[in-house]
Amino acid sequence: MPTKRVPRASATTEVTYRSIIRLFGLIRHIMEPFFSQFGITGSQWGVLQVLLRAEEEGLTRLRLTDLGDRLLVQPPSITGVIDRMERLGLVARSASDTDLRSKVVSLTPAGRELALRVRKGHAARTQAILAGLSPKEQEHLHQLLDQLGSHLEATLEPKDGPVAPRVGTAPSSARSEV
């Protein structure tokens, strides 16, 4: 009995997709040791960065759902990260003043100090990651990634939830950086 033929993407599409996945993994492998120097994970850095940016915008606390939206994850996924960060004294969680069903998260003084220390080294690390490309190539890559991001946003169904605006094109309140 002949096997049913499963459609495949073109060779170029397959190779490009695998390259994106590979680069994501390589960046994680480069950045995780950096974050571990500070006793945190990449996920915890994402939370610290989003909360620090929110403070810079005048928001001292974020609802868990807003934090999840900015990180492109569902609130249940972030709960464990927040639990660990709370035990480390980096964030504080409390009930919302306006909706008692909602929880809000804020940086503690220790969390703010750590976020500022990590941020200093993070810039140098990201520059080192992109040093293999000229400034013009980096700009071109950014344009291509922006284009792909726009395409992916357009393909999402409303049930998939909110999408954070693209970095460099949106207000800083919507950006997260890992």
Give me a quick take on this structure.
By secondary structure, the protein is mostly helical.
Annotation, overall tally of beta strands: 3
Gyration radius (Cα, Å) is: 19 Å
The total domain count is: 1
Order of helices and strands: HHEHHEEHH
Order of adjacent strands in the largest pleated sheet? 1-3-2
How many angstroms does the end-to-end distance come to? 50 Å
Low-confidence spans: 166-178
Fourth-level CATH superfamily? Winged helix-like DNA-binding domain superfamily/Winged helix DNA-binding domain
- In the CATH hierarchy, the third-tier topology is known as Arc Repressor Mutant, subunit A
Global geometry: globular
| Number of H/I helices | 6
Please tell me about this protein's structure.
With 178 residues, this protein is mainly alpha-helical. It has one domain (26-153): Arc Repressor Mutant, subunit A. It has six helices and three strands; from the N terminus they run ααβααββαα. The chain has helices at residues 11-36, 42-56, 64-71, 75-87, 109-130, 135-155; strands at residues 62-63, 91-95, 103-107. A three-stranded antiparallel sheet has the order 1-3-2.
